[in-house]
Design goal:
Largest sheet: 8 strands, mixed
Shape: globular
Strand order of the largest sheet: 1-2-4-3-5-6-7-8
Order of helices and strands: HEEEHHEHEHEHHHHHHHHHHEEH
Number of helices: 16
Strand content: 5-15%
Helix content: 25-40%
Distance between the termini: 45 Å
Structural class: alpha/beta
Radius of gyration: 24 Å
């Protein structure tokens, strides 16, 4: 995502940035490469070839050979971006003496199976969730050998798409991963489950919580642009929205609408209580700042330009908006970004990941911009020569029928527009849903900050307690297995049908860690 407004815009941004920045942790990370198999599911051609997969590792806090392994399942971008915005993992690693690994997703960052040609047609076939999960399982297995960590339990972490992957990794490879924290993971919406109007309705709700006048002004600005378009007054639209190139037709106006809607999306997702540079430089509470911008302008369209400038022109130095350069429409209505990573994500949302969200100007404040399955299919065929499999994730990754899984935390912030497509109620004693009041997109993965709402501090404590119990439980299982093996070696084995069934008992204080959460009063116990 890429980065005019008037002096008022700049002054407001500067004042908003007075909040404290997130403290930097991330100690001792080293960048390394692993020779990863190109195709895990073929024994011919690509199955015998490798590519350099990038990963980051820190043993700063690790109790060598005994401490757990915290493994971040990289998502759609450069792995350093996620490592620099997931300080909770390092804080917990210090507490539990863990080895920390951040693995980059194939086809993103520098982990390119076919080099710079990776996103060209006929080179993208190996860009699948299944291949990425196999990458992670193989990498974990190999690194455990390299670090002499065979008995060290692995906990997966991830946010957003990475959160989906951490949950999937636990579901598909429970022999490799003992538990997973899936933060802001929209497992239901990406599987084509739920309401297609939910996302932009919830973006609107975020701005409405900030100011009802804000939503009224936004609706008015879009309506005025539409009216000017119908009358052919494209020059006026161009002037008030400060576009670098003149708006000259309805297609340009539609692009302008997508460009503007994307700014609202990013500001709602990144609505943190302190300034960040995660997916663009944003001030503290960007939704509030944006609303102040549009309300301060008498002209609604100029106010809209100032609002979107909070995202696209954070420096206040740009004189105009190149709406085709800053925003590129794709098969993800919430935005793909720009560059090669955006191309890879566009392919993924054209194949397995279903994001057919639309805005309708009824349940949301945005112009009517439909995106149906038919429209997605046509776009994806024209762009990639592929046909989306709309319901594949429901079959391959269980859809909403997750009850046979175990040891997964699903965390969501109530300010995050992705939350409505995630798991928001606990499904079993070990499939735990936690809600962060006043939390935006995977706020819990970010490190401690003085500006944090109390709810995220409490949720991080709950997560730490649950993860600690998983680590202890895995250690107890190892001891039981070793004890059973020693006993079997010293005495004759009982007939298989008479072997006793063992059940691991979790620490007694585990249940207490969830006081005040959705699981209050519900004791933890492993699934049979």
């Amino acid at each position: 995502m890429g980065p005019l407004p008037l002096l008022l815009s700049l002054l407001s941004l500067l004042s908003a940035r007075a909040a404290p920045a997130a403290r930097v942790v991330r100690p001792g990370l080293e960048e390394r490469l692993f020779p990863q198999v190109r195709d895990h599911f073929s024994f011919e051609t690509c199955g015998n070839e490798t590519f350099p997969q990038r990963y980051l590792v820190s043993a700063k806090f690790w109790k060598k050979g005994f401490g757990p392994i915290f493994f971040y399942t990289g998502n759609e971008g450069d792995i350093w971006t996620f490592a620099q915005n997931s300080d909770f993992i390092f804080e917990l690693a210090e507490e539990l003496q863990a080895l920390v690994i951040f693995a980059e997703h194939r086809y993103y960052g520098k982990s390119l199976p076919f080099g710079l040609e990776s996103t060209q047609q006929k080179k993208t076939a190996l860009l699948t969730i299944e291949q990425a999960l196999a990458d992670y399982a193989v990498l974990i297995t190999e690194l455990k050998q390299q670090f002499n960590a065979a008995d060290c339990p692995v906990i997966a972490f991830g946010g957003s798409y990475g959160g989906m992957l951490s949950a999937y990794l636990r579901m598909k490879y429970p022999n490799v991963v003992a538990g997973a924290l899936a933060a802001s993971a929209p497992l239901l919406s990406v599987a084509g489950l739920g309401d297609s109007t939910q996302f932009f309705r919830d973006v609107t709700a975020d701005f409405q919580k900030s100011s009802l006048d804000c939503v009224t002004a936004v609706r008015k600005s879009f309506q005025q642009i539409k009216d000017l378009c119908l009358s052919g007054a494209y020059d006026e639209i161009s002037s008030k929205m400060a576009t670098c190139n003149k708006i000259s037709n309805k297609e340009d106006v539609y692009q302008l609408f997508g460009f503007a809607r994307n700014a609202f999306t990013m500001m709602a997702m990144m609505n943190y209580p302190y300034k960040t540079d995660f997916m663009g430089d944003l001030p503290a509470n960007p939704v509030k700042v944006g609303c102040e911008q549009i309300i301060a302008h008498k002209d609604p369209i100029e106010g809209l330009a100032a609002l979107v400038g909070v995202f696209y022109n954070s420096s206040g130095l740009a004189q105009c908006f190149d709406i085709y350069q800053l925003y590129q429409s794709c098969a993800d209505p919430t935005g793909c970004g720009t560059g090669s990573d955006a191309e890879a994500w566009d392919y993924q949302v054209c194949t397995e990941i279903n994001l057919t969200f639309n805005s309708n100007n009824v349940t949301d404040m945005f112009p009517e911009m439909p995106f149906t399955e038919a429209m997605r299919e046509q776009y994806c065929w024209n762009k990639w020569h592929v046909r989306p499999r709309a319901h594949w994730l429901q079959t391959n990754f269980w859809g909403e029928d997750l009850k046979s899984a175990s040891n997964i935390i699903f965390s969501n912030g109530d300010l995050d527009p992705w939350a409505g497509g995630g798991i928001n109620r606990s499904l079993s004693p070990s499939l735990i849903a936690l809600t962060i009041k006043g939390g935006a997109h995977h706020l819990d993965l970010r490190g401690h900050n003085p500006a944090d709402p109390p709810s995220v501090t409490e949720v991080r404590k709950l997560e730490a307690g649950i993860i600690s119990s998983w680590v202890k439980s895995a250690g107890m299982e190892r001891l039981q297995e070793q004890g059973a093996g020693a006993a079997a070696g010293s005495q004759p084995s009982a007939p298989l049908s008479l072997q006793p069934h063992s059940r691991v008992q979790l620490p007694q204080d585990t249940a207490a860690c969830c006081t005040g959460s959705r699981l209050a009063g519900t004791p933890f116990s492993p699934l049979p």
